[in-house]
Design a protein that fits this description.
Bound molecules: zinc ion
Number of helices: 3
Helix content: 10-25%
Radius of gyration: 15 Å
Order of helices and strands: EEHEEEEHEH
Number of strands: 7
Length: 153
């Protein structure tokens, strides 16, 4: 299917706590009953760590189609036409209160990522998870942030 959305997420974990790709794999693909959600594939293609490094979690050939092997499970009903990316964080230290916890490095990395993405796929809409679901994720206003960094879509 044709790529239509780049969806930004947070891991909904406490400020300052690192999250590994292995953590996410456990949460998403471990069987229900063993602490996981039992999904076939994780929810995100790329993970942005606290230090701004970007880790690829699911293969992608970077063309304008979402191939079956590229599909990740970030937002029900949108996965066949979306790429999902996530930053580590999204809650205050209590682990519950939604908060934009992006570090300066994560903001820089995310800006670099979306600018490169938008240059290559200008017609693909960049959105936050909260624009297609009633969740707080990714805990910041993606559209306002895109305006701030000069992306008009
Ligand atoms: Zn999300």
């Amino acid at each position: 299917m044709r790529l239509k959305y780049l969806v930004i997420h947070c891991t909904a974990t406490p400020e300052g706590r690192e999250v590994s790709s292995a953590d996410i794999r456990h949460w998403h693909t471990d069987p229900v009953g063993k602490g996981g959600r039992g999904w076939k594939q994780v929810g995100y293609t790329d993970l942005i760590h606290l230090d701004g490094s970007v880790e690829r979690m699911v293969g992608n050939n970077e063309d304008a189609n979402v191939d079956p092997w590229e599909i990740t499970n970030g937002a029900k009903g949108y996965n066949s036409v979306s790429r999902h990316i996530v930053y580590a964080g999204g809650t205050a230290r209590d682990g519950k209160t939604s908060k934009d916890t992006r570090t300066a490095e994560q903001k820089k990395a995310l800006e670099r990522y979306v600018k490169d993405f938008h240059r290559r796929f200008p017609s693909v809409r960049i959105i936050g998870h909260n624009e297609v679901s009633s969740k707080a994720c990714p805990c910041f206003d993606v559209q306002a942030w895109l305006m701030d960094i000069g992306i008009r879509q």
